[in-house]
Design brief:
The chain is α/β, with parallel strands linked by helices. It is 34% helix and 24% strand.
């Protein structure tokens, strides 16, 4: 399985940026743990040549969202692969700083464009992954859009807003939000529509930016903006896929030479702390890469995974964790949801 998973990681990396990628995994039966990488409905890689998924190609074409599906009463987990979430912020003024800090806490790549050196330094101090200190039009020429890129326009004036929106509207994106009053933003969009920018894209811009929570201070506005981005992100039924840290661990056996178990959340009900497809790699000595939520729930999964890694019983399995009821409350599981975690040797 180790060679196969490394091969899968390589194929995933090679397909980065392509639409509609998903990994299917058999959760039970004779073909348990078989995997296939699907791109635009076509099987491009299989852990077993001409295996389970090749025999169910018609079913594969009908899978579109993350979660559990069934082929001939056998449960399959569909893990739709998004790319790393990236937030591109135009402007590094007072409102931008809390947006940067919260986005960093969300493990997003945060790129800030700012033409004033002093403000660019503020963005660096706030933790931005990358700061480009150049005129906005030149900086945006260096940014490629994607289905996982969220653009936030927070410049100091509507002339700069217009420059940024004109460039961004022509890029692939998951979200465009622009600060400013309704009148100011309407003027910007009208001017760009007259220049031939796609009206449908302009109409879809989130403006005034942020959820309407009555925000007043820069910090509150920052929360409202990030909340809106989270809302947009979560409406897309996509999982995160494999984090960069997990991919590095799987493709660098000399760094983690021990037997390893992959834990993946395959069902989630209630207020469980992590979403579908969240992964954690567990080594035999208990060292972990990633997290599936922490606390007693994660500790229980780690305990089972370490026994598997020791060779006691290496069969793939689903571990059900119920974080409701008195017992869970006594153990400190405060989230109150239920999860099924698929464990497999990698």
């Amino acid at each position: 399985m180790g060679r196969m998973i490394m091969e899968l990681m390589e194929v995933i990396q090679e397909s980065e940026g392509r639409a509609e990628r998903m990994v299917l995994t058999v959760l039970e039966g004779e073909a348990v743990s078989e995997k296939a990488l699907i791109i635009n409905g076509e099987i491009v890689w299989e852990s077993r040549k001409d295996g389970y998924f090749r025999r169910h190609e018609a079913d594969v074409k009908n899978v579109t969202e993350s979660g559990i599906v069934t082929f001939d009463s056998v449960r399959i987990f569909c893990d739709t692969l998004g790319q790393e979430k990236r937030i591109v912020i135009c402007g590094a003024g007072h409102v931008s700083i809390p947006v940067i800090k919260i986005a960093v806490m969300m493990d997003c790549e945060v790129i800030v464009l700012e033409d004033r050196p002093m403000y660019a330094d503020h963005a660096r101090q706030a933790g931005a992954s990358q700061v480009i200190c150049e005129p906005f039009d030149e900086a945006l020429d260096k940014i490629e859009g994607s289905a996982d890129t969220y653009f936030v326009i927070l410049t100091r004036g509507h002339r700069y807003d217009q420059i940024c929106l004109e460039k961004i509207a022509q890029k692939e994106h998951a979200y465009i939000g622009m600060i400013g009053s309704r009148r100011r933003t309407a003027l910007v969009k009208q001017s760009l529509a007259e220049k031939g920018i796609d009206k449908a894209v302009l109409d879809a811009v989130y403006t005034p930016i942020g959820l309407d929570i009555g925000a007043q201070t820069p910090a509150e506005i920052g929360v409202a903006i990030i909340a809106e981005i989270i809302e947009v992100k979560n409406k897309k039924k996509r999982t995160y896929g494999y984090s960069k840290e997990i991919m590095r661990a799987l493709t660098a056996p000399d760094v983690y030479p021990q037997q390893k178990i992959m834990a993946t959340i395959v069902t989630r009900h209630g207020s469980a702390p992590q979403g579908l497809g969240t992964k954690m790699l567990i080594c035999q000595d208990g060292q972990c890469v990633g997290t599936i939520g922490g606390g007693c729930m994660e500790a229980r999964v780690i305990q089972i995974a370490r026994l598997m890694a020791s060779g006691e019983n290496e069969q793939p399995r689903i571990c059900h964790v119920d974080m409701t009821g008195n017992e869970a409350e006594d153990e400190g599981m405060v989230c109150g949801g239920e999860v099924d975690v698929f464990l497999e040797v990698v």
